[in-house]
Every structure is written in structure tokens, then in C-alpha cells.
């Protein structure tokens, strides 16, 4: 049964989080309600909180501002380009932000590829643990977030990375 998917739901300050893992207990997705492209429980998935103990503990510590870096086994399936973009996201530290253009440069993409980078970031299946919320517009504006801009603001505020001036929501 290599296609076995475990799932659980955990309460958070952002609402209930849906977590999925594979048969090896590797985290494969973290979604929030109403997320653009987010996962929903499917027939055949097995509800079992067991594979998620470490993830649940680390998420609780993160939301309590006691954890700055997740240490979880992660697996995501994407194109080679998306995998490169997601790896670049993984390198953005807690409390910092970066721009779509900076991510494009990190993965060796041209300035013309910023939209493709945005698409890859928007397709990130591991919200919060893979910090796509740390990517902002070149002008400092808080641009799109698959989990909703309100959640992006909450995450950046938790991490202390919102600038003092008011942010423009685009």
C-alpha cells in the first residue's frame, strides 16, 4: 500500500489545519480552510493522529513563538522548477521576508520568470512549515497567499517581520 495517506486535523490560531502524511509518516501537505488549491479529505484516507505527533508539537511551539525552525520530514511532488522554488522557500529564515524576484534569482530564473515563481509558491502544499508567507512584493506589499492575506499577516506578525509602516494589501 504505497499510496496510503494518513490525515488529521489540528486546531490553530489560523483555524483548523489539515495535515496529510504518507505511509512512512512523512508530512505531505498542510492546508487551511478555504485555501486556494488546498487539500480536502478523500475517500480511502486513514484518519490517524499518530503519524503527526511531532508536527502537532512543533506547530504548537511555533504558534506559541517558541519554535523558529521546523524539523520534520517533508515530501512534496512537483516539477523540477517547483522543487527548486520550494527549496529556496525553505532557506528563508524565521523573522525575515524575501521577494518573488529574489526567489527567482536564487533558483537561476530570469526576471521574466517571476510569474512562474509566483505560481510555484502559490502551489506550495506545505503551508506554514514551508514558509511561503515570507514572500512579499518588491515594494514591500503583502501580495497573494493561498491561505488568505489575513493569515499571512498573522504569520508575519507572529514572526515579528511586518514592517512598522502600514502594509498595502494587494
Automatic annotation (TrEMBL):
Question: Could you share any additional remarks the record makes about this protein?
Answer: This enzyme catalyzes only one turnover and therefore is not strictly catalytic. According to one definition, an enzyme is a biocatalyst that acts repeatedly and over many reaction cycles.
Q: What is this protein called?
A: Methylated-DNA--protein-cysteine methyltransferase
Function comment: Involved in the cellular defense against the biological effects of O6-methylguanine (O6-MeG) and O4-methylthymine (O4-MeT) in DNA. Repairs the methylated nucleobase in DNA by stoichiometrically transferring the methyl group to a cysteine residue in the enzyme. This is a suicide reaction: the enzyme is irreversibly inactivated.
Q: Which residues form the Methylguanine DNA methyltransferase ribonuclease-like domain?
A: 6-75
Q: Which UniProt keywords apply?
A: Cytoplasm, DNA damage, DNA repair, Methyltransferase, Transferase
What GO biological process terms does the UniProt entry carry, in alphabetical order? methylation
Please give the InterPro entries that the UniProt record associates with this protein. MethylDNA_cys_MeTrfase_DNA-bd (IPR014048), MethylDNA_cys_MeTrfase_DNAb (IPR036217), MethylG_MeTrfase_N (IPR008332), MGMT (IPR023546), MGMT_N_sf (IPR036631), WH-like_DNA-bd_sf (IPR036388)
Tell where it localizes. Cytoplasm
User: Which reaction is catalysed here?
Assistant: a 4-O-methyl-thymidine in DNA + L-cysteinyl-[protein] = a thymidine in DNA + S-methyl-L-cysteinyl-[protein]; a 6-O-methyl-2'-deoxyguanosine in DNA + L-cysteinyl-[protein] = S-methyl-L-cysteinyl-[protein] + a 2'-deoxyguanosine in DNA
Similarity section = Belongs to the MGMT family.
Gene Ontology molecular function, alphabetical: methylated-DNA-[protein]-cysteine S-methyltransferase activity
Q: Which CDD domains match?
A: ATase
List, from the UniProt record, the residues annotated as the active site of this protein.
Answer: 132 (nucleophile)
> What Enzyme Commission number(s) does the record list for this chain?
2.1.1.63
Q: Which organism is it from?
A: Streptomyces rishiriensis
Stretches assigned to the Methylated-DNA-[protein]-cysteine S-methyltransferase DNA binding domain? 80-160
Name the Pfam families for this protein. Answer: DNA_binding_1, Methyltransf_1N
Amino acid at each position: 500500500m504505497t499510496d496510503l495517506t494518513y490525515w488529521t486535523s489540528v486546531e490553530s490560531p489560523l483555524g483548523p489545519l489539515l495535515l496529510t502524511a504518507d505511509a512512512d509518516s512523512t508530512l505531505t501537505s498542510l492546508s487551511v480552510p478555504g485555501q486556494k488549491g488546498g487539500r480536502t479529505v478523500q475517500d480511502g484516507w486513514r484518519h490517524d493522529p499518530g503519524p503527526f505527533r511531532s508536527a502537532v508539537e512543533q506547530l504548537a511551539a511555533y504558534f506559541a513563538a517558541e519554535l523558529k525552525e521546523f524539523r520534520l520530514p517533508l515530501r512534496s511532488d512537483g516539477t523540477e522548477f517547483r522543487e527548486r522554488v520550494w527549496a529556496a522557500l525553505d532557506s528563508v529564515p524565521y523573522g525575515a521576508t524575501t521577494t518573488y524576484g529574489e526567489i527567482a534569482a536564487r533558483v537561476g530564473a530570469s526576471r521574466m520568470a517571476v510569474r512562474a515563481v509566483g505560481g510555484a509558491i502559490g502551489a506550495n502544499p506545505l503551508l506554514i512549515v514551508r514558509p511561503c508567507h515570507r514572500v512579499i512584493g518588491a515594494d514591500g506589499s503583502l501580495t497573494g497567499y493561498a491561505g488568505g492575506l489575513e493569515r499571512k499577516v498573522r504569520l508575519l506578525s507572529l514572526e515579528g517581520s511586518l514592517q512598522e509602516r502600514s502594509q498595502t494589501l494587494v
